[in-house]
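Design job #97: recover the sequence.
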């Protein structure tokens, strides 16, 4: 039995910088930070870690719990509005790959994402991908990516006694978190990190179109649903 955990941004979709734009707008409004996330890489990081990085860079300190709570309360409606305005790009091969995996009798699908749960749900809903995923690990579970991946694995194993976990992501952070959890790593070079940077994964794919063939080569095909 195989548990697949997918990163969202850069792996399943591109949100056209809606998350970054929402971060910058809220931090400008609440903390008078202009271009708050300039120079900050978002790829593979949790929402909480990004917010902490920005506060440390701009204000020389971490946000207080109250500031984090206020930020997140403002972030979700701003993100939803930006997603509604700009939409998202579902990456090549994603829908076909999810359809293929769902047909396998020994596979269950989840997400492992640095987005907080409501942010992840908003992006997946905008991409019409939300129905594929019944559970996940999120940035609100932990600011440490390996810990949210571990939480996703726990939730997945409540649904299926998985003997193998496959994490699919587009950054070196996805690889490190998967390794920390003893998972197999499939890297897709469709996000912020190059194929060369992702070489420590078990396999590096140029796009999601290649994943079904990799799955069949590694596990065979057991279509029953």
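Job complete. Output follows.
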């Amino acid at each position: 039995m195989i548990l697949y955990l997918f990163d969202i941004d850069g792996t399943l979709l591109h949100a056209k910088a809606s998350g970054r734009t929402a971060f910058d707008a809220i931090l400008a409004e609440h903390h008078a930070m202009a271009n708050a996330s300039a120079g900050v890489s978002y790829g593979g990081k949790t929402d909480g870690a990004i917010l902490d990085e920005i506060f440390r860079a701009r204000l020389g300190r971490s946000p207080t719990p109250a500031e984090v709570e206020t930020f997140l309360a403002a972030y979700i409606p701003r993100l939803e509005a930006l997603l509604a305005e700009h939409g998202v790009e579902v990456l090549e091969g994603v829908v076909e790959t999810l359809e293929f995996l769902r047909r396998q009798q020994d596979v269950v699908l989840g997400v492992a994402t640095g987005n907080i749960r409501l942010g992840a749900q908003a992006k997946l809903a905008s991409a019409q991908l939300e129905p594929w995923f019944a559970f996940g690990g999120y940035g609100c579970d932990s600011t440490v990516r390996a810990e949210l991946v571990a939480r996703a694995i726990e939730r997945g194993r409540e649904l299926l006694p998985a003997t193998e976990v496959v994490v699919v992501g587009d950054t070196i952070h996805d690889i490190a978190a998967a390794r920390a959890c003893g998972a197999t790593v499939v890297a897709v070079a469709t996000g912020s990190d190059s194929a060369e940077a992702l070489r420590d994964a078990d396999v590096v794919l140029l796009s999601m179109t290649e994943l079904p063939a990799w799955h069949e080569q590694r596990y065979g095909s057991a279509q029953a649903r």
